[in-house]
């Protein structure tokens, strides 16, 4: 229970300390040493080591993408959310998600990933809750995503609806 | 045929004069007088009269949205595309579409509208071709949208695929 309490309380304290659209978890919180146990913390800080992010994406088998483009995508995302395992003064990137948005009506969540070592513990759900809380605090009224077949049920449990009122997600690829 | 030739040639000349990510059709082109016939022109210019846009959206029966938020959404869209009927030195807004994007991988098209008086003439398709050309010129590799049931077939004819490989569009609304 200490584990869960930690990330819930961390999450709450972050919300309480919001000062702008893209608040950062303070360096103090992020680097706070807690020698007795691991902690899971969330951040909207965008200064991410792109190699560490690539390693995380490699771990779930995603195709590699040019880091130059990943950097650009992060810069131009409305929200970038990361999840960290903090052990003493070490931190490890274990989850990531980002969202594009018009800052007014719609947001679309992309690239949701949780490291395989940390899957099955409710952390994907925790990461998504963090993302939704952030988007909601920005008064985004319509949050969308495109779900691979094996995660459709996961997103359903989070309150997402597939094809509401027959609305279809559609894709176009250059040809 | 003159009609079609006009908008195709206008469209091409715009592409040729690209100078940045968000080029604008020049005021000269937009206001160019052509007393002999109506012309349809396209623009990525964002200085849109919000009341004129509201009128266009009213005409297709959309719910009104606060203009403050519409303004913000336009400012924070990656691409804003408008379609105009130009008659002499008058211009009338007859189509609109915009896209959010991470500027690198994904774009999502929102708010595609063509005035009812101009529907059934292939202008929706022309507007979408303009949007896709602009997105493609920015090296966006994945263009997405959420289609209402009655326009799914329209987007299919444009090369969009519904639920490719079982990927589902999903929505979450605040509760």
TrEMBL record, chains A, B:
GO cellular component, one term: cytoplasm
Keywords in alphabetical order: Acyltransferase, Transferase
GO molecular-function terms, A-Z: N-acetyltransferase activity
Signal peptide: none
Domain of life: Bacteria
Keyword Translocase: no
Protein's UniProt keywords contain Acyltransferase: yes
Alphabetized Gene3D superfamilies for the sequence: 3.40.630.30
CDD domains, per the entry: NAT_SF
Domain N-acetyltransferase: start-end pairs: 40-175
Name used for this protein in its record: GCN5-related N-acetyltransferase
